[in-house]
Each structure stands twice: as C-alpha cells, then as structure tokens.
C-alpha cells in the first residue's frame, strides 16, 4: 500500500464516537489528513457506489480535495470541518484518519 511506503497509517474513526473527538488541530502531532468514504448514487440514481474524498490541512487552512469538485474547497474553520464530518457520517459515510507514523 502506498501509505505504508510514505510512513503513514490509517485509523478508522468509529461512528460511535462523535466527530468532535477528532483533534483536527494536531496536524503537527501526527494527523496528516482525513479520508472519507461516502455512499453515492450515479447514473440517474440507479447505481449505488462509494466515493473517496481527501481532506488536508495546509498551514492553518483545511481543504476539501474531492475530485468531483472543480477546485479544492476551503473550510472556514475547524468547526466547519467538524460539521462537514457530521454530515458525512449521518449519511452513511466513513471517516478514516491518515496518521504520520511515530518513530
């Protein structure tokens, strides 16, 4: 897996835990980014599938790097990110935390 080669690990965030428990400000302390796996319907709602969305904090700004968007979207603040994560999980999405491996 490419993430192992880049010294990253994936931690699945349990739906039983609130997304507010994710420390989105600890980017320098291990959190590299967030990957979402969301349910989607395509082709006039006939085909159910799943879509991957990457999110990353660069500097002090969180970005939604969804490939379905024409450009990356900027979140206003950390609370805006948490609201988005709550929306995703309330609609059947999965939250995966991409962590830097600790030495």
TrEMBL record:
It catalyses: Thiol-dependent hydrolysis of ester, thioester, amide, peptide and isopeptide bonds formed by the C-terminal Gly of ubiquitin (a 76-residue protein attached to proteins as an intracellular targeting signal). Pfam families: Josephin. The keyword Iron does not apply. GO terms for molecular function: cysteine-type deubiquitinase activity. Residues 1-103 form the Josephin domain. InterPro entries: JOSD1/2, Josephin. Keywords: Hydrolase, Protease, Ubl conjugation pathway. Its EC number is 3.4.19.12. It is an enzyme of class 3 (hydrolase). The keyword Protease applies. GO terms for biological process: protein deubiquitination; proteolysis. PANTHER family: JOSEPHIN 1, 2, JOSEPHIN-LIKE PROTEIN. This is ubiquitinyl hydrolase 1. It comes from Dovyalis caffra.
